[in-house]
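Box S1 | Example of a co-folding query
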Amino acid sequence: MLSCPLVEVYRLSLLSRRFEERVARLALEGFLPPMLHPGAGHEVSQIAALAALRPLDPVIYSHRGLAYMVARGVSLQAILCDIAGRVGGTNNGKGGIMHVVDPSRGIYGESGTLGGGLVVATGMGMALQKKKSDALVVHFFGDGGSNRGPFHESLNWAAVQKLPVIFVCENNGWAVSVPASRSTAVEDISLRAIGYGIPGHIVQGDDPEQVFATFAQAADRARAGQGPSLIEIKAVRLLGHYSTDPQDYRSDVASASEKDPLPKLADMLLAQGLADTAALSAMEQEIERQIADAVAQARQAPLIDAREAMTDLFA
Ligand SMILES: Cc1ncc(C[n+]2csc(CCOP(=O)(O)OP(=O)(O)O)c2C)c(N)n1
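Box S1 (continued) | Returned holo structure for thiamine diphosphate
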């Protein structure tokens, strides 16, 4: 059985974190619009999850963070151009920050409405099943999204039809400013799997090996025609709902930062002898260089022509 590529998960998580920090600074500077939902705290589990799947298994991601695209190798420059409305992005300025779409890397964007992606993922699962493909769809959504109607319809239908879908609830305990305890009567969203007759799993967002193994198991099940799984990642939202959120509704900000999976993973690499401090600092420098290059290139890209809004339309 394959094991989790921990060093690569760390590198991509660090790249996602530093890139997102840079995006936030570029927004303050006015180069980009400020509306980013930071994924800080979620990166390690998102990347370990995708590492257990095939590179082209379709991903319908959630609005939180950029790690999904970074994990699939979408270029940083293209992501920046998408966000900044510049030529060179993945969809010519039509998506902005939350809708990077690159089917050549299995990245299919997300729905504009919370919960909408569940239905799209289920429909894609039907299409894959009809085509007798051995690919599977993975869809990430939040605990807030799991309380919307499409969650129940999608899981029920996917279970009945044995669709190749992995439903992933990233439970960070918050939906904007509403704590999960005020919106959800159960602590574990994964318990709901029982109601649909499918496996439900809980994984800890700071345990990439557990995440990898659980996704690999759910993927085997989906590819074998046995149907969907529901995986709940216990995640931590280190920052605000959006980048300039003052978080005045929150008293756990300091304690949340102690739960950051990224330094924990660095410690794990050092303890297991998978990397030494010199290797980690070389990695950090390489990442800074990669980001600086992407920013320099994006700054040179021209703004999208407004007429682009009328191209590639099919409805
Ligand atoms: C139908 C609908 N209602 C409200 C919103 C606004 N909205 C965007 S994200 C969000 C909260 C999402 O919380 P959760 O699903 O827990 O994900 P998280 O932000 O914690 O990652 C809300 C209410 C929306 N996009 N669509």
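The mean pLDDT is 96. Strands lie at 59-60, 137-142, 165-171, 174-175, 178-179, 200-204, 229-234.
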